[in-house]
Amino acid sequence: MKLFTFSKGGVHPEEYKLSHEVATVAAELPKVAVFPLGQHIGAPTKPVVKRGDKVKVGTLIAEAGGFVSAPLYSSVSGTIAKIDTIIDATGYRQPAIYINVEGDEWEETIDRSEKLETIASHPELTAEEIIDRIKTAGITGMGGAGFPTFVKLMPPPETKAECVVINAVECEPYITSDYRLMMEHADEIIVGVQLIMKSVSVDKAYIGIEENKPKAIALMTEKAASDPRIKVVPLAQKYPQGGEKQLVEAVTGRQIPAPPALPIHVGAVVINVGTAFASYQAVMKNKPLFERYTTVTGRQIKHPANFLVRMGTPFGQLIEACGGMPEGDNKVLAGGPMMGKSVMTLDVPVCKGTNSITVLTGQDAHRDPIQPCIRCGKCVTVCPMGLEPYLIATLSSFKKYERLEGEDVLSCIACGSCQYTCPSHRALLDNIVQGKQAVMGMIRARNKK
Ligand code: SF4
Ligand code: SF4
Hints:
- This protein is an alpha/beta fold.
- Helix content is about 25%, strand content about 20%.
- β9 (about 165), α3 (about 175-200) and β10 form a beta-alpha-beta unit.
- α1 (about 125-135) crosses α3.
- The chain is globular and about 65 Å long.
- It starts with about 25 loop residues before the first strand and ends with a helix.
- The site of one iron/sulfur cluster has 16 residues, from α11 and α12.
């Protein structure tokens, strides 16, 4: 099997796909479901419900707050308890809708049947109709970035979509939710890919899957065989293969220029495999985005699992369902160990971008003491963006933001490869991310003048 990959840098973190062969189960409904209003990149949503209102599963509870925004739908039936605040996975407090759960009554407009709808049986679907249904359903990137999907399907006029690239890489070393989704819903995913292709009028799609998922490569190849426009591309196992730029280079051979260039500037529309599945459900089943596949894992977690989770379910409930918190020191991450963010409380609810909850225990939960840089150059060797992490981290810590901009800090994809590889355990990523945010603020202020 010929394997493709990206050209610069990358690392090989130890792999713990503990829940790979654990079939997905539906998580129990929470007693109270909580919906932060900002679950995506762009303007937060605006509530359209008030205390005491009754809702069903699939009822609109907050509308889009701007063009780049996505509406929110209830994942449960019950009564609006309050509109208050909650600390989300970013560690910041933000407005949220609380719903007391009562029963499990769904909106009748949602098609809950298992029947596979095909694109051939719906010739009436135009590109505009597909995009509109995806927009109305509140679909955002399910890989964690949270960009409203319909915006990606409406490329700027100076660009031209030539292919769809489906991100089914799942290169984080613990996460298995996309893998289970492929193993359990391959047919629906293929229809989802066809819908995305139709929406952007292209006749080529690539599904990129890493070599450590041979069963998924085989299954998706078999399912895609009926449509010669869709090609499954096996990828070498290398982190961060799932980065947009790395994936596009691996499957198309094209390199995306430095920011503000996007994949569409080389003709690619990159969509996560979970987003393709959600698009199928939105367009074919009239189902808004209110539940998702989420992995709950960790080396000391008794029963690592994959759940179909209603959004708004607290992390703590899912960890309990896997046997509870391990003894000793723990760090709970929203996401995987490479790019995940440690959460401050187990009340953080599952949101649209929660692909995994990873519990690190004991020594893994601690950082090693930071030592002086020994100028080994390892961070430079592994950076997939060709940056000099030791330099930009230092410039950032000294607040030299203009110089930092010149060193191309905006190209950093926050993959953490530099920090992972540093023998001196320097907090490279933390410093770089902080510096990148400061430079973005500086550019925004400059553009306002
Ligand atoms: S976090 Fe940024 S600087 Fe570090 S390796 Fe990744 S892209 Fe390079
Ligand atoms: S990997 Fe760490 S020790 Fe080596 S050059 Fe980079 S910052 Fe310095």
